Amino acid sequence: MRYRNDLFQSTNPPKNETNNTQKHLFIGVACAALITISYAFFAEKFEPSAPETIALTIPDITTKIEQTGGTKTLITELGITEVQPLTAVNANTPTQSMQSLSTIWQEHKVKSGESLSAIFSSNDLNKLDLHNIVHANDISSQFATIRPGKSLMIGHDISGELSHLIYKKNAYAELKATKLEDGTFKVELLEQEVDRKINTATGVIHTSLFVDGKNAGLSDNIIMQLANIFAWDIDFALNLHEGDRFSIIYEKLYIGSKLIGPGNIIAAEFINQGKSIKTVRYQNAEGKASYYTSGGNSMRKAFLRTPIDFARISSHFNLKRKHPVLNRIRAHKGVDYAARSGTPIKAAGDGKITYRGRKGGYGRVVIVQHGQKYSTLYAHMSKYRKGQRVGSRVKQGQVIGYVGKSGLASGPHLHYEFRVNGVHRNPLTVTLPNANPIEAKYKADFLEKSKTLFEQLEQLSSTQVAVAHISE
């Protein structure tokens, strides 16, 4: 038997194998050197000597980052169309360029009775900025007309200072204040182009102004405008009757093809118990607009006929009425309007609050004095409007409190009294003094511009009657 013994032979390679190994090693070293030289050559050729500046387009971005109660805080990159590649911030970096990079936005919802000054205080804003904004130009005074329920957008720069203030007046206009480098503000009114399309509508009263107005295709806003225009002449809670009619010419507002909402009623007629009342909206050269009859008399009276919207009369003026709580004959020297608790109560006319507090069976009461001759009383309130006190001046239609059942009341309602020289008069029948007619210098212009509108109202009313006869 023969055995292999190569496993036990020496590991030293033969001479010819040693020569092959050396050749392979030489080739590997040469390749490595060649790769190193090539890398260095190409890297030097294609590496830029200085970084290029590349402009990037960045869309406007708004991201909600916090919400607390009625206040939202937003961070927005505004107005940046091109930016340079970011570099480290140093002492030589211009502050203005950093401020333009981002703005922190805070939305403040305007509360009832809140002024711009109060908003600055509650948001810890600089009063000098407030002064500079409201005195910037003729437009800036519009910041004083902010309304409850609207929003103010407050912009802060990167250092936390006020940089912008934006008040969106409506769907197509906003008031914008922008801080300049010298600390002053640029204030501008930005308005989108609005197309005002004229519409007409007619309706007949069967149920109520609100229900029948909706049936005629009117929005809530237009119905409220209609009620306010005729509020001095018609008590919509009491004096509406089956068959009363209305005709209106009004605006619808569009931006492009998009409807953004109703505009103003520009002419209207209401036929109440057979009596026709026509009116046209007229804006004078000073920008003041109001509604006038064909003779130029103002639709506005010194007092509203009713200080609450769309409420039901639950008790009339009656000097021999039996009191519902005391169960005995006791003069009822006013009118009661039944309404839900919390319904707003409006001042019937311009005046000064002379009493605000509890008064026996009246509960919570506000009394307003209107000049020397007239005064009005509002009782059984659930609460008063904030920000008012004895001595406060109020405007006609301004909210002064809210319906309740304080004092001797069987349910939530407003008890309303009207006094002439201290004597109680029936608020529903008392003759109300008129406001001033159109100024003489505008009378001719009004008559010329209103003539066509009154003629169109006449045609609308005639068409409505003709259609009614055909349907019968």
Give short descriptive properties of this protein.
single chain, 472 residues, Nuclear Transport Factor 2, Chain: A, Glucose Permease (Domain IIA), 3 domains, 32% strand, globular
Structure notes:
With 472 residues, the protein is α+β, with helices and mostly antiparallel strands. It folds into 3 domains: 61-79 and 99-191, Nuclear Transport Factor 2, Chain: A (Roll); 195-301 and 436-471, Nuclear Transport Factor 2, Chain: A (Roll), CATH 3.10.450; 312-425, Glucose Permease (Domain IIA) (Distorted Sandwich), CATH 2.70.70. It contains 7 helices and 22 strands. It has helices at residues 15-46, 95-99, 116-122, 127-134, 209-215, 220-229, 440-471; strands spanning 61-68, 71-77, 103-109, 151-156, 162-168, 173-179, 185-191, 195-204, 245-255, 258-272, 275-283, 289-292, 312-315, 335-338, 344-346, 351-358, 364-370, 374-384, 393-394, 399-403, 413-420, 423-425. Strands 13, 14, 15, 16, 17, 18, 19, 20, 21 and 22 form a 10-stranded antiparallel sheet that branches. α5 packs across α6. The radius of gyration is 39 Å and the shape is globular. The termini are far apart. The model is unreliable at 1-18 and 39-100 (pLDDT under 50).
